[in-house]
Amino acid sequence: MSAPHLAPLDRTAAVAAIESAAAAYRNWGRWGDDDVLGTLNFVDDAKRLQAAGLVRRGATFSLSQAFDSHGPQNGWRRRTNPVHTMLDTGVDAALGSQGFPHGIGGADDVVFMPLQASTQWDGLGHIFDRGLAWNGRRAQDVVTSEGDLVTGIETTRDRFVSRGVLLDVGAVLGAGLGTGDELPDGFAITPEHLDLTIEAQGATADVGRGDIVLVRTGRLARARREGWNGYAGGPSAGLSFTSAGWLHSREIAAIATDTWGFEVRPNEFDDAFQPLHQIAIPNMGLFVGELWDLDELARDCHADGRWDFFLAAAPIQVTGAVGAPVNPLAVK
């Protein structure tokens, strides 16, 4: 399946490129004026049955990074790593200070964190385009101080179950770049790179309607080896702005990467911030996952030669949230 491509990027023309892409790939009204699910509408019962049929061995892989104080966040825009503390402990139980009868004791704990501190989904209320949210709604009518009143992440609580497809772009292209199975910082993954990866991996890597696509760049693997070093917000390989047409034409349900920002960093325009987000979320209604751990799954896919699997990735149902933590499970 070929995707319409934008004209070659002019680094000085961010506004024109964003306006053109928004008009070309906008899904507003496609599923009705009241829609809150965007591209998750591509996942139906038949798609979930297809995904269930991909389970052959029962091998299960968690695609989540840890949620702890050692995570990648550096405080940008008040994003910090999770703070986990105990409310009751075994020490309290041993001291008999909990006030419970007949020797029973217990432990309890609490976590304080930004909802996008680690592995997460961006909800449809996370990004706006020139004051408008998904489906053309005014941003101020969608997200207020009370949260996302329309497209809160809870609307997706039972929707992220589908066929998952891993595209290990880092491994396919990294060898030719002299970077092993990782892409260098600033590498922009174009539609041609995605198609080349699918061709190299074979038929089970083909991407179509309702799939959840996972793109491995190798950036997390390098962070594990060398330290975070700007992993959260710094330079990274990622999707090119020119991939917008590919994402739209494939009719995927969602896409997730092993990077902080999904798209290439620095961005491809001199004066822009996350322009592909600006097209994907409020205009396409496409759900974006970030900070996913794809390394163990990639090793298994290379070993068995199969790149698709059953994927369940429900977010925590935080009412009104514009993003939420997730522990995605891939089953092969």
Automatic annotation (TrEMBL):
One of its GO terms (biological process) is L-tryptophan catabolic process to kynurenine. Gene3D superfamilies: Putative cyclase (3.50.30.50). One of its GO terms (molecular function) is arylformamidase activity. It comes from the Bacteria. Transmembrane segments: none annotated. Pfam families: Cyclase. PANTHER family: CYCLASE, PTHR34861. This is Cyclase family protein. It comes from Antribacter soli.
